Amino acid sequence: MNANDIEAVSTWLSSRMPGFQPIEKIKKFSGGQSNPTYRITCGDTTYVLRRKPPGMLLKSAHAVDREFRVQRALAGSGVPVARVHVLCEDDSVIGSAFYIMDEVPGRAFDDPRLPNLSATQRADIMDEMSRVLAAIHAVDLNETGLSNYGPPGNYLQRQLDRWAKQYRATQTEDLPDMTTLINWLRAHMPADDNQRTLVHGDYRLDNLLFDPNSSKCVAVLDWELSTIGHPFADLASVIMQWQMPPGREGRGLAGVDRAALGLWSDQRFVDSYCRRRGLKHIENFNFYLAFCYFRMGAILQGVKKRALDGNAADPERGLKLGAHVPEFVRQGLKAAKGTV
């Protein structure tokens, strides 16, 4: 954001946020590959601004309006979210839609190995992840005004169709295994079991903020992919992430001695989640896992395309992430065969 953008945001907010003071400083957060995010300092108060990226975007992508809506609806619920203030859908202000929310003080963990924590603290963080995920799926859609937050019909089928289309729209090279994975998912789609809950769409450790002095989650972030859908897709996305290699790129737990570190096994996390939701077990879990690998591969393909087009939040990192698309597809096919 340039000086003109900052002035335009200040002017726009001055008449829409009571007590708003002019922006003194703005700093872009590093990391994310979707909606550019900034800390803005206004006197002794700091806020967070999230905006759509500039340039040509895929239809329905980067939905900051949906992020704003769901966080506003969840205020005061059992799901911790940042307080949102105003949404600007007028592209003439800074070139794309944006919204303002409070900055929530808290700890962010990029590495699920949770270095510098004790074994007990690591287990507590995983337990809190399970609790919050179950809380998201327990949200009363009618009470929160979210009953129409997603279209009716089979969520998994709808998501498969959507992301297959998005993948084709951003494809930069031929990847036959992706076609194989898409065809397998189409052929093995579970019958609709009528589970219809709020889903986050990208639930993982680094999208959560924790209290500085405890394992309590103080905010769930990055609601761009949220909708009404099937809760097992959210659960499988956690397991998918943990099955990736450890380190900055994979951010997973593959090959890690979890027991020695106090980290839960995949099965323990699934069992904890099921217990909280009153479920005995989950059938065909490998389908949901394969689906999540497919969807993440399609998402990262979009990140790569935006990086090549020059409108990614962090082009260099976007290209690095995009290089992992074949690996996600490979893991998806392994999950499909039940060999993960």
UniProtKB/TrEMBL annotation:
Gene3D superfamilies: 3.90.1200.10, Phosphorylase Kinase, domain 1. Residues 26-249 form the Aminoglycoside phosphotransferase domain. It holds the Pfam family APH. Signal peptide: none annotated. Its EC number is 2.7.1.-. CDD domains: ACAD10_11_N-like. One of its GO terms (molecular function) is transferase activity. Keywords: Transferase. The keyword Plastid does not apply. The keyword Acyltransferase does not apply. This is Putative aminoglycoside phosphotransferase. It comes from Roseovarius aestuarii.
